[in-house]
Amino acid sequence: MTPTIQVDGLRKWYGDTHAVDGVSFEVERGEFFGILGPNGAGKTTLLEIVEGLRKPDAGQVSLLGMRPWPRNARLLPRIGVQLQATSFFERLTAREQIRTFASLYGIPAPHADRMLEVVGLADKADTRTEKLSGGQVQRLSIACALVHGPEVVFLDEPTAALDPQARRNLWDLLREINAEGRTVVLTTHYMDEAELLCDRVAIMDNGRILRSGAPAALVRGLDAPTRIGVETGTVPLDGARELFPDAEVTDDGVSLIVSTRDPASVLSTLAERNALRGLAVRGASLEDVFLDLTGREYRA
């Protein structure tokens, strides 16, 4: 089966800045694909090129078997786009907003109204958008992107600036969208989000894709120690360092942490000494992979 999205050698320059620098990847039909990267990595520029909103300087893009640039009118009914910055018409209610979007595709008003139910906004239908919360605005934005039943949905950092509850509610909605068979492409810098939602991810920085694959496979490929924590005082710090000479042992006053590549031996030794109070075991995560590839320097 032909991939839904094929990107080959894509480049975009702004003066001396290489926003997208030789990017290649594929997205299969029905896949939930994540593009991860720090601020300024080139995620939004890449997505806009694939969507047909921006012209590439080099390389090729195929979306549903067609070229998205120059702006391809045949693609518009088949894709849904939720941009990083959402703007709605002023002084319109949620119902009026989504009916306006639906009318652009010839979708009847009753179907548009049902989309408000799908995203959990039926009780806010008569509320002006400026009165909606951040999470509700994001849900409305996604509803507008879905109202015409697109095959491919592009979401550019849809949970940015949302509180934890709103983020998790939105995750449930995104899972449902993907479960319907739609291909979803998501950009984010939240690693927990990508790890939970995405079938595969591409980690991007400085305009390039550094690594791609299933989140679990990327984590397994990272040579990182397991962190085993027990309550401070369960084992004296000096004693723990003698017990585990090949591990890194620290104590922050709350937990004694043993970072080891032989977790079975450490856990067995702690169990023999009845020293498992407050036990917590943490392996590597997608965040560790991300930091290993992109570094820990703060990006404004």
UniProtKB/TrEMBL annotation:
Domain of life, per lineage: Bacteria
ATP-binding in keyword set: yes
Keywords: Antibiotic resistance, ATP-binding, Nucleotide-binding, Transport
InterPro entries: AAA+_ATPase, ABC_transporter-like_ATP-bd, ABC_transporter_ATP-binding, P-loop_NTPase
Membrane topology: Peripheral membrane protein
Subcellular location field: Cell membrane
GO molecular function, one term: ATP binding
One Pfam family from the record: ABC_tran
Ranges of residues in domain ABC transporter: 5-231
Family: Belongs to the ABC transporter superfamily.
Name listed for the protein in its UniProt record: ABC transporter ATP-binding protein
